[in-house]
Amino acid sequence: MSFNQSVIDEFRANQGKVGGYFEGSDLLLLTVTGAKSGEERTVPLGYVRHDDRLLVIGSNLGGPKHPDWYHNVLANPLVQVEIGADSFEAVAVPAEGERRDRLFAHVVAEEPGYGEYQENTSRVLPVVVLERSDPAPGEGPAEIRSLADKLVEVHVWLRGQLRHVSGEVDAYFATVAAHRGEGAAPAPGLGLQIRQHCLAFCQTLEIHHTGEDAHMFPALAAQNPHLKDVFDRLRTEHVTVARLQHELSVLLADISGADPERFRKELARMSQELNAHLDYEEESLLPLLSEIPFPPGPPAAA
Predict the structure, then answer these.
(1) Which positions make up the signal peptide (predicted)?
(2) Which residue from 183, 178, 168, 181 is spatially nearest to 255, judged by alpha carbons?
């Protein structure tokens, strides 16, 4: 058994408490999706609190290369965080520029060892903000009892992330305009926060729609042939949303050079099409899905 795995096992067995090297430390478990393998990987990391967010540092003990988990969150920003007995989804957002420097100063004030790691390497240690992606209080079902509840939970998350991205886009382009008005180009990486949230949203949306097309829709259609037109429309809307998602991703790849009005227009189109699709899907399918328990129970005995 590897050292990391022994720490992970002890952490999970004792609600986040571990002994040995990490005894008394603020420790969390970060589960990421491999950039190349697509497999889930869990790593124990020290963290520092900053207001209501958690900061983790790509220190790699002051080594010359960024740790693997950092490359993975750049490719797949949606992560799972375990802290104490709590577990939640978060979007991993590396801080950039002045914000990174300010947050790193806070980290060093709390945990001076990170300052020593920085002194031992020529690379800039990444500061990654773990932004909890739970719905706002009062949004979504209070308890997941049926497949209808689960569908609404996913839809609430997608709508919330899309609103979040829209707000960040407005703030970003306002910052860009201010920099250009002063005759300076915007600092590199200012769009990274938008990229991470948009990527998390797009990846989740793609997984959700792929799962519906491959599994949920065929199963429901077989039992409800009178709803053929509904499922045909939903699949067609998936294709439309996927095309808009791709067009938005192309613009996102060079957001610093993107035309603000075009970017806002494409994002507004995505918002309009997706929200209309989610509304229609809920109107059409929630009555059926409310009869299906979630998570599904064991198969009935023969």
Answers:
(1) none
(2) 168
So where are the chain's domains?
A: 3-132, 147-289
Q: Which residues pair with 78 in a beta bridge?
A: 91
Q: Are 200 and 75 in contact (CB under 8 A)?
A: no
Cα–Cα distance measured from residue 263 to residue 19, given in angstroms and rounded to the nearest whole number = 50
Q: Which fold has domain 3-132?
A: Pnp Oxidase; Chain A (2.30.110)
The string of pLDDT tens digits covering residues 229-255 is 999 999 999 999 999 998 888 887 776
Query: Could you read off the pLDDT of 174-223 as tens digits, one per residue?
Result: 776 676 655 555 544 457 788 888 889 989 999 999 999 999 999 999 99
Please give the pLDDT value at position 128. 97
User: 147-289 has which CATH code?
Assistant: 1.20.120.520
CA–CA separation, 116 and 118 (whole Å):
5
pLDDT digits over 263-277, tens only? 888 889 999 999 999
Q: Which two tokens stand for residue 66?
A: 């960024």
Residue 3 has a pLDDT of 83
For the beta carbon of residue 184, count every other beta carbon within 10 angstroms: 9
Question: How far is Cα 246 from Cα 84, in angstroms, rounded to an integer?
Answer: 38
Q: Which two tokens stand for residue 255?
A: 């957001």
Q: What is the pTM of this model?
A: 0.84
pLDDT above 60 for 301: no
